[in-house]
């Protein structure tokens, strides 16, 4: 029995409009920043509020999903401190114990500056097809869409495998709590043959996009000290080397400033030819959309004129970003002082297949060895995450994804790597090497996760929900 397309489309539209979007608006209002950005998250209570909101909505789905089991699982670390909670759900399958695992997260990035007039991170605003607010697309919708996809199957009496839904609250901090939960829940999760992750992106809103790889990351704070306290710049400049200039010299060891090329060989990997082919295909479909999706200032241009090279730059090559700075006063309080130190926060994206521990060691060594002028140069590694490269796609999943995209988007499915990090994928890839993966999401052009003016593209959310239902149905029939 095939899924009735019009019934599924109408049902997804109705559930999104009447149930999911109102819940997402309440969710956006909660400033449940990830623990890395709210160390006092237990006391502040925002994470708990978000967990309860999502859990309550999901529990209410039991009327549509008989047998639904939901538990908010809470573990403590080795020192007795609360770990961020996990929402664990099970929906029984039609027969057998084959399992589909669906994943998402509910913690958020911090506010970020630059929201346009009329928008704030914690106030939901709907404008046409877009719902603005922090965390809606990254990744608050995932729990709602996951259960709704299963609900679409149940409404039509279509069989499906047992489904486990796992929603964590630590992803934006590197998922450091998640391994403990995966270990504790392993007997209940079972051995999934299909993993669906709704925390990724789409290169346009016109077709279904599968993520085939993710970059890892190493991050930390680079500090250069030259004095014990600030001194008059007229007295010291020309004698005392500027901490900022020393910092520039040190960064030039790891990044070629003229091109952005990362110079540390240990941070590179051989790019598989299949991934190069995917990059060329994606660039051909997207054209200038590869780069026009970003909010460029007038006159600036991308780092290459070759669209395929731009795709590979953001998916299979290392890249450095300076994401924060300390030791520099605001402009209105900057006197004529040679500052004693400069600190910057570095985020180094690393390709799939690069070991983050080895990458951290290589990066640290390159930064701190033989400091210019004998300055004190330190690099404090904060976090690291493993990248991920999808296993070969089974023919049934390839056909299922193609069929879903053609049916609900009216265009062929596309595949491409993503530049971000989802630590959970690396963990699952190790634990379930035989599983197939459907990694997808709503983070498309302009959606700007982590930045100002983040939005969720509502029509894509509705279509994506139908696509997930279709793939789960085909998984059962394989």
TrEMBL record:
Pfam families: M20_dimer, Peptidase_M20. The keyword Disulfide bond does not apply. One of its GO terms (biological process) is proteolysis. It comes from the Bacteria. Gene3D superfamilies: 3.30.70.360, Zn peptidases. The keyword Protease applies. Residues 213-369 form the Peptidase M20 dimerisation domain. Keywords: Hydrolase, Metal-binding, Protease. PANTHER family: BETA-ALA-HIS DIPEPTIDASE, CARNOSINE DIPEPTIDASE 2, ISOFORM A. This is Succinyl-diaminopimelate desuccinylase. It comes from Myxococcus virescens.
């Amino acid at each position: 029995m095939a899924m009735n397309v019009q019934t599924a489309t109408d049902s997804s539209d109705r559930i999104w409009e009447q149930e999911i979007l109102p819940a997402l608006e309440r969710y956006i209002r909660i400033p449940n920043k990830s623990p890395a950005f709210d160390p006092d998250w237990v006391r502040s209570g925002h994470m708990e509020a978000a967990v309860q909101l999502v859990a309550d909505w999901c529990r209410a789905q039991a009327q549509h999903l008989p047998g639904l089991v939901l538990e908010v699982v809470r573990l403590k670390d080795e020192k007795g401190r609360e770990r961020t909670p996990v929402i664990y759900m099970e929906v029984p399958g039609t027969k057998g114990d084959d399992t589909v695992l669906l994943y998402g997260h509910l913690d958020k990035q911090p506010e970020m500056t630059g929201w346009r007039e009329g928008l704030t991170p914690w106030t939901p605003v709907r404008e046409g097809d877009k719902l603005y607010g922090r965390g809606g697309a990254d990744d608050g919708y995932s729990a709602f869409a996951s259960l709704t996809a299963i609900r679409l199957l149940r409404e039509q009496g279509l069989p499906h495998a047992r489904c486990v839904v796992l929603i964590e609250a630590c992803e934006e901090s590197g998922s450091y709590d998640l391994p403990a939960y995966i270990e504790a829940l392993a007997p209940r999760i079972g051995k999934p043959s299909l993993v669906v992750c709704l925390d990724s992106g789409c290169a346009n809103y016109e077709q279904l996009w599968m993520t085939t790889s993710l970059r890892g990351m190493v991050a930390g704070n680079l500090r250069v000290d030259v004095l014990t306290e600030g001194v008059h710049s007229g007295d010291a400049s020309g004698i005392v080397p500027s901490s900022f200039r020393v910092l520039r010299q040190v960064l030039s060891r790891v990044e070629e400033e003229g091109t952005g090329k990362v110079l540390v060989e240990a941070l590179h990997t051989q790019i598989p030819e299949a991934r190069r082919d995917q990059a060329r295909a994606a660039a051909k479909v997207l054209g200038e959309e590869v780069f026009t999706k970003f909010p460029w200032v007038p006159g600036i241009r991308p780092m290459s004129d070759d669209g395929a090279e731009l795709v590979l730059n953001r998916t299979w090559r290392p890249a450095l970003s300076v994401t924060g700075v300390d030791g520099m006063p605001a402009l209105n309080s900057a006197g004529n002082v040679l500052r004693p130190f400069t600190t910057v926060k570095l985020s180094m994206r690393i390709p799939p297949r690069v070991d983050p521990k080895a990458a951290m060691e290589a990066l640290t060594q390159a930064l701190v060895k033989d400091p210019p002028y004998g300055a004190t140069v330190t690099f404090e590694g904060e976090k690291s995450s493993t990248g991920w490269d999808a296993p070969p796609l089974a023919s049934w999943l390839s056909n299922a994804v193609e069929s879903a995209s053609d049916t609900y988007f009216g265009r062929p499915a596309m595949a491409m790597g993503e530049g971000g990090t989802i630590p959970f994928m690396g963990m699952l890839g190790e634990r379930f090497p035989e599983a197939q993966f459907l990694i997808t999401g709503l983070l498309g052009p302009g959606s700007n996760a982590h930045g100002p003016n983040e939005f969720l593209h509502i029509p894509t959310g509705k279509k994506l929900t139908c696509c997930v239902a279709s793939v789960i149905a085909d998984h059962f029939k394989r």
